[in-house]
Write a structure and sequence with these properties.
By secondary structure, the protein is mainly α. It contains 18 helices and two strands.
Length: 461
C-alpha cells in the first residue's frame, strides 16, 4: 500500500531530461538503487528558446513599467500634482450609464488596457497547458505548488496582521497574492543577473500560474452588481471569435470588433472586464494545423506581447502608481495596519510561501536541486516573487475604491515591492559570477548551428 501511495506522489515530480522520476527504493537502506528527480533543471531547447524570447520582451516592458511608475510618483509629488489627478480623472467621451463606458483615463487604463495584458496571459496559459511545462503533471507540480504556497501564505500573513487590528481592511486580503513578472525581470536586468535558465523558466511559469489564480480571485471575490444577462450575451462574440481562430482566420476587421463587444458585455455584467481578455486568449489554438511549427497562439502572443508589455502595462502603472505624499503624516501611513499587512505579506509571506512549499515538496518526495542550483538561489527567486506591482495595484483599487485608503495601499505595494526587489538583488548578486559561468556554458555554440551545445547533448534537445 505504501509503495502505491509513494508511486502516485512521485508521478507529480518535475522530470529531469537525464534521470528518471524518483521511485521508492526496493531496498530502503540502499541509496545506490535509487534514481533522483532534479528540480530547476534546464528545459528543452525549443522551450528554452521560447522562454528566452518571452523574457526579453518582458524585460524591456519592465523597464518601461518602472519608468511609468517613476514618472507618476514624481509628477504626483510635484507642485503640479493637481494636473496629474485631473488627467487621471478626465473622461474622454461621456456616454451615459447605459454600458458603463463613461470611464476616466485611469479607468480605461485599468479596465481596458489591462484586458490586453490578460489576453496575453490567456495565450500564455493556453500554451503552457497544451505545449509548455504545465502539460506534464510532473513538471507542472513544482510551479503550481510554489504558486499556491505563494498565494496562501501572503493572504494568511495579511489576514493575521489585519485581524489583530480589529479586522480593518480584511477585504484587501488578495492584494499581495500575485507576482509582477515584468517588474521582476526588470530588476534582474538592472542588477545584470545571469540567473540560470531553469530558475528563469520556473519564475515565468510561477508568474503565469499566479496570474491565473489572480484573475480567478478577481472574478469570484471582486465582482459587484452582477448582471447575468450581459455576461450570457458575451458568449456570442466570444463563440464567434473562437470559431474564427479555430479556422485560423486572422481577419482583424472581424476579430477586434468581436473582442471589443465581448469586453463591453463582460464589463456591463459587473465582472471585471479583464476576464474577457483571458477567455478570448483561451479560445486560440496552440498547435499548428499540420503538427509542426508555432501555432496561432504563439503567433498572436508575439504580435500582442510588445503592445501589452510596451504600452498597456506601463500606461496602467503611470495612472495607478501616482501616490502623493506631500503633506502626509508618514508616521500615520506606516503604522496603518493595512500598510503593514501588505508590506509584510509581500516581503515575508510571498518568500516564505514560495520557498517553503518548494522545500517541503523536495523533502517529501526526496527530490534534489539541479547541480548548478542552491537553496539560496531559490530564496532569491522567492523574494523576487514578492514584487506584486501591476495586479496588486489593480486588486487594491477593486478592494478599496478611490480615496486615501487606496493611496495607502498603493504606497504599501510600492514599498513592499521595492524591499523585495532590493533583498532579492542583494542575495542573487552574491552568486552572479557563478551564474555568469553557467550562462556561458549554456549558451556555448561551438559549431555555430544556432543550437547551444548543451542542448544537442541532451535527449529532446
Amino acid at each position: 500500500m505504501c509503495r502505491e501511495v509513494w508511486s502516485a506522489v512521485s508521478s507529480l515530480l518535475p522530470a529531469h531530461p537525464e534521470v528518471d522520476t524518483f521511485m521508492p527504493d526496493p531496498a530502503p537502506h540502499d541509496d545506490r538503487t535509487r534514481t533522483v528527480s532534479r528540480l530547476f533543471s534546464r528545459t528543452s531547447w525549443p522551450e528554452a528558446r521560447f522562454v528566452a524570447d518571452m523574457l526579453r520582451t518582458e524585460t524591456v516592458g519592465g523597464g518601461l513599467l518602472l519608468l511609468g511608475a517613476l514618472l507618476a510618483l514624481v509628477w504626483a509629488n510635484s507642485p503640479w500634482e493637481a494636473s496629474y489627478a485631473a488627467l487621471g480623472d478626465w473622461v474622454p467621451w461621456p456616454t451615459g450609464r447605459g454600458m458603463h463606458l463613461d470611464l476616466s483615463l485611469a479607468g480605461w487604463a485599468a479596465d481596458g488596457l489591462l484586458a490586453v495584458f490578460f489576453f496575453v496571459v490567456g495565450l500564455e496559459l493556453k500554451r503552457e497547458f497544451v505545449a509548455g511545462d504545465l502539460r506534464d503533471p510532473r513538471r507542472a507540480a513544482l510551479p503550481v505548488v510554489a504558486a499556491l504556497g505563494g498565494m496562501l501564505m501572503p493572504a494568511l500573513v495579511y489576514v493575521g496582521v489585519t485581524v489583530t487590528a480589529d479586522g480593518a481592511g480584511l477585504r484587501g486580503w488578495a492584494i499581495p497574492t500575485a507576482t509582477d513578472i515584468a517588474f521582476a525581470l526588470a530588476v534582474l536586468a538592472v542588477v545584470s543577473s545571469h540567473l540560470p535558465q531553469g530558475l528563469r523558466a520556473f519564475l515565468l511559469t510561477l508568474a503565469v500560474v499566479d496570474d491565473l489564480l489572480a484573475i480567478t480571485i478577481i472574478a469570484v471575490f471582486y465582482t459587484a452588481d452582477f448582471s447575468p444577462l450581459p455576461l450570457l450575451g458575451a458568449l456570442a462574440p466570444i463563440g464567434i471569435f473562437a470559431l474564427l481562430v479555430q479556422l485560423r482566420r486572422i481577419w482583424w476587421w472581424a476579430l477586434i470588433p468581436l473582442a471589443v463587444a465581448a469586453w463591453t458585455l463582460v464589463h456591463a455584467s459587473g465582472v471585471h472586464a479583464t476576464v474577457a481578455g483571458v477567455l478570448l486568449g483561451f479560445t486560440v489554438p496552440v498547435r499548428h494545423r499540420r503538427g509542426s511549427g508555432p501555432g496561432l497562439a504563439e503567433h498572436l502572443e508575439h504580435r500582442w506581447r510588445p503592445i501589452s508589455a510596451g504600452f498597456a502595462v506601463p500606461v496602467f502603472a503611470f495612472f495607478a502608481a501616482g501616490v502623493s505624499l506631500r503633506g502626509t503624516d508618514l508616521g500615520a501611513v506606516f503604522t496603518d495596519p493595512v500598510v503593514i499587512a501588505v508590506v509584510a505579506a509581500l516581503v515575508l509571506g510571498k518568500s516564505i510561501g514560495v520557498f517553503g512549499s518548494t522545500f517541503l515538496l523536495a523533502r517529501f518526495t526526496r527530490a534534489e536541486l539541479d547541480e548548478d542550483i542552491t537553496w539560496s538561489d531559490l530564496l532569491g527567486v522567492a523574494l523576487l516573487a514578492g514584487i506584486g506591482f501591476t495586479v496588486s495595484l489593480l486588486i487594491g483599487e477593486l478592494a478599496f475604491g478611490a480615496g486615501s485608503e487606496t493611496d495607502r495601499v498603493k504606497t504599501a505595494v510600492l514599498v513592499g515591492s521595492v524591499i523585495s526587489a532590493l533583498l532579492a538583488s542583494a542575495l542573487l548578486l552574491r552568486r552572479n559570477a557563478v551564474y555568469r559561468r553557467i550562462s556561458e556554458r549554456e549558451s556555448a555554440d561551438a559549431d555555430g548551428d544556432g543550437v547551444p551545445d548543451v542542448d544537442q547533448q541532451r535527449p529532446g534537445g
